[in-house]
Automatic annotation (TrEMBL):
PANTHER family: AGA OPERON TRANSCRIPTIONAL REPRESSOR-RELATED, HTH-TYPE TRANSCRIPTIONAL REGULATOR SRLR-RELATED. GO terms for molecular function: DNA binding; DNA-binding transcription factor activity. Keywords: DNA-binding, Transcription, Transcription regulation. Residues 8-63 form the HTH deoR-type domain. InterPro entries: Carb_Metab_HTH_regulators, DeoR-like_C, DeoR_HTH, NagB/RpiA_transferase-like, Tscrpt_reg_HTH_DeoR_CS, WH-like_DNA-bd_sf, WH_DNA-bd_sf. This is DeoR/GlpR transcriptional regulator. The keyword Thylakoid does not apply. It comes from the Bacteria. PROSITE patterns: HTH_DEOR_1, HTH_DEOR_2. Gene3D superfamilies: 3.40.50.1360, Winged helix-like DNA-binding domain superfamily/Winged helix DNA-binding domain.
Length: 263
């Protein structure tokens, strides 16, 4: 019985990982990939849907979309954000999730890439998440095995971030083992930058209170400079980007001793 249960847990993890990678999958594809029967896969999908981890479709499943995104579904700017480098961001997120170990405290900035990271945490429990982003907290609200701390502050409409005096004050009380930073730009000499001054202030504090800094950014962000400094390039230890990043774009970072992952 225990061995059968272990196999079921393993299948569930593989199904969720596959959904995260491709966005939607059929029962037939899962049967072929996992070597399981149609009845078994359908039962797995039904159980995962009951746990709010996916949405059943006709003949398969797709990742669940939280209801709080519904008002934004017809917003062109929202669609541009979630559609831009979507596959690359999923690969970056999966690599980032591999760095997370049970018991760790993780700080996350706002953004589409960091949102993908939390969607890769289905097989990870016993961690603490620190964020100034409302949607991250909402997506994790059903996870009783993960502690979530939100900075508080003034809600900024641009990707659900919290900024202002309350956010900066609470950020000063929080410490993390690893922080994943989504950025608007990262340039060797100018550092990590974003487009909003108050958000930069909050994230600068969280970065200063984190032991290990990892930039998660698609290749379009490399070499770009936005308006406000988050932290110097020399403060970070790793960058996770996509395979579209050219050698000439990453060599300056590697020359500083920064480990660059192209996934």
């Amino acid at each position: 019985m225990a061995r059968g249960k272990d196999k079921q847990v393993q299948r569930h993890e593989q199904i969720l990982s596959r959904l995260q990678a491709v966005g939607e999958i059929t029962v037939e594809e899962l049967c072929s990939e996992l070597g399981a029967s149609v009845v078994t896969i359908r039962r797995d999908l039904d159980e995962l849907e009951q746990r709010s981890l996916l949405k059943r479709t006709r003949g398969g499943a797709m990742p669940i979309g939280p209801l709080f995104y519904e008002p934004f579904k017809k917003d062109p700017s929202f669609q541009d954000k979630i559609g831009s480098f979507a596959e690359e961001k999923r690969r970056i997120a999966r690599k980032a999730a591999e760095m997370i170990t049970p018991g760790a405290t993780i700080a996350l900035t706002g953004g589409t890439t960091t949102t993908e990271i939390i969607r890769c945490l289905n097989a990870i429990s016993g961690i603490t998440i620190i964020t100034n982003t409302v949607n991250v907290a909402m997506e994790l609200s059903s996870r009783k095995d993960i502690d979530v701390y939100v900075t508080g502050g003034h809600l900024r409409g641009n990707w659900f971030t919290l900024v202002g005096p309350l956010a900066t004050a609470s950020a000063g009380l929080l410490f993390a083992d690893i922080m994943f930073l989504g950025v608007d730009g990262i340039e060797v000499n100018q550092g990590l930058t974003c487009s909003h001054p108050q958000e930069a202030e909050v994230l600068r504090i969280l970065a200063g209170h984190s032991k290990h800094l990892v930039v998660v950014a698609d290749s379009s962000k490399l070499g770009n400079v936005s308006k406000w400094l988050l932290c110097p390039t020399s403060s970070i230890q790793e960058i996770i980007t996509d395979t579209g990043a050219k050698d000439e774009a990453i060599k300056p970072f590697e020359a500083l001793g920064i480990k660059v992952h192209r996934v």
